[in-house]
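Renewal narrative, Specific Aim 1. Our central claim is that a sequence can be written position by position from structural information alone. The example that follows is taken directly from our test logs and has not been curated for this report. It begins with the structure tokens describing the chain, in the order in which they were read.
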């Protein structure tokens, strides 16, 4: 598991994303929506401040015990779906391409 964690951290550097940005928050929502719900995994893919912001804003729920990871709330899902519809790959939004890559890693 440690090797997987290190590989994720190496491939997906957070250095390009300011911790307190909208992009960092969207990345948290995106990752959870894509199934990256385990704390160790989310910590390696997202800024902890952005995770905390998502929790405090009630956009995600915290893990429960060892078996149930982070969960996106209805408000969090609405926010990431709205962003996807505005910015997604089919929108031809060249100005948003950098944010798209930062949020989705694609």
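The sequence written for that structure reads:
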């Amino acid at each position: 598991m440690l090797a997987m964690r290190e590989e994720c951290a190496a491939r997906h550097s957070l250095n390009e994303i300011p911790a307190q940005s909208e992009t960092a928050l969207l990345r948290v929502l995106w990752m959870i929506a894509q199934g990256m719900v385990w704390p160790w995994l989310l910590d390696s893919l997202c800024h902890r401040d952005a995770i905390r912001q998502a929790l405090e804003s009630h956009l995600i729920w915290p893990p429960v015990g060892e078996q149930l990871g982070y969960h996106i709330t209805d408000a969090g899902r609405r926010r990431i779906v709205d962003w996807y519809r505005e910015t997604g790959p089919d929108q031809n939004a060249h100005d948003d391409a950098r944010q798209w890559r930062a949020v989705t890693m694609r």
